Amino acid sequence: MICHVKIRRGEPGQESTWSEYTVQVAEHEDVSIMNVLERIALEQDPTLAFFDHAACRQAACGKCTVLCNGKPCLACKEKAREEMVLEPARAAKLVRDLLCRS
Using CA atoms, how far apart are residues 75 and 16, in angstroms rounded to an integer? Predict the structure, then answer.
């Protein structure tokens, strides 16, 4: 599967921009949105900001919440899709890109 990802990026007080990425995922791989974001940060764009923590992936804290195609979801739990538009879930608490204060 090829994931086409469009991400709203920016900082408070600045006009946001969009960045687009393509991530190859093996058909048998079960990947989350967070896995895709990690691959983007590691392989394509190390400047991408999003919540990522070793203790995450338990779908408990909600700090990795993003809007995926307009709907709120936990990036650590939600399965990646072929087409994803990702935006910060709490624009009023935006730190940068998809990273928001809790």
Answer: 21
